[in-house]
Amino acid sequence: MIVTRAGFLTSVQDLGRTGFRQFGVSLSGALDSFALRVANLLVDNNEGAAGLEITFGGLQLHFQDKRIVAWCGGEFDVRVGPTELPAGHVCRVSAGDQLKFGRPKLGSRCWLAIFGGIDVALVLGSRSTDLRGNFGGFEDRVLRDGDVVPLSARPGSSTAATAISSWTAPHDWVSPARRDPILRFVRGFDWFRFSDVTVQRFTDHEFTVSTDSDRMGVRLTGPELRRIDNADLVSEAVAPGTVQVPPNGQPILLLGDCQTIGGYPKIAHVITVDLGIAAQVRAGDHVRFSEVSLADAHALLLERERALERFRIGLSLRGS
Q1: How many Å apart are CA 8 and CA 160, to the nearest integer?
Q2: Helix (H, G, I), strand (E, B) or coil at 48
Q3: What is the distance between the alpha carbons of residues 287 and 291, in angstroms, rounded to a whole number?
Q4: Does 182-299 carry CATH code 2.40.100.10?
Q5: How many CA atoms lie within 13 A of 219 on its CB side?
Q6: 262 contacts 220 by C-beta, under 8 angstroms
């Protein structure tokens, strides 16, 4: 697969580099791992196969053999030649075809799955690109114009697609971007370090996404969140979804490339099922937070996994 135009920021990602956080290695991986899982299932891949994470579009690919592709994410204008390819629909591309991603109307990222997966070397058990550590993925970096990306050689596919499929996955799975999203959270370890007035500000007011945001975290501006005390804190584990509050009182929502430990107080943690929505926000967007119980967070995740299992079974019956 030849990258004729690499776009703003495109990298190889899978479900992340697990099991190494105790050594300071970030998770990396697709910022919306569920979207990548769904896209991989649509093209008959293993859910953890490596695909492309595309930020703000501009990507153009030239295929050198027949492949089946699908993508999930924000509202992008995606085309195979002159034909539009909607999110969550499966398409068979032929040798010589061009796949193009325009700028998003809503959201900021999408994930492309290609039948067979992207065949780059495993580094610490993952093919993901660590953009801060400069390792993994395609030659330890983001894609550039002219790159020739290796794809796994797999014969045939049980997925039926002569052009673009009429069937798809549920809309919320393939198009998770929202206008003025509300992110659900559970209380963080340091919730008690903030006054009732401050936590009410956190839940009652909206925050604006700063331009100083990336795969490491979303910086937010809004009402100041001040701690009750100014005691120094011991650095503790953080993870994607953690909401930290630095001394300036403006929260930071951590994403997949976040550090493994941090010394800022943790006011909240965005629940797993909403991390895909968080991955779509861009500078100028407005975000609000809504508290849920830990039991509700578990129930929402369990229900989504059950629904994905039913979808997985449906795809297997379709291909049988």
Answers
A1: 32
A2: coil
A3: 14
A4: yes
A5: 9
A6: no
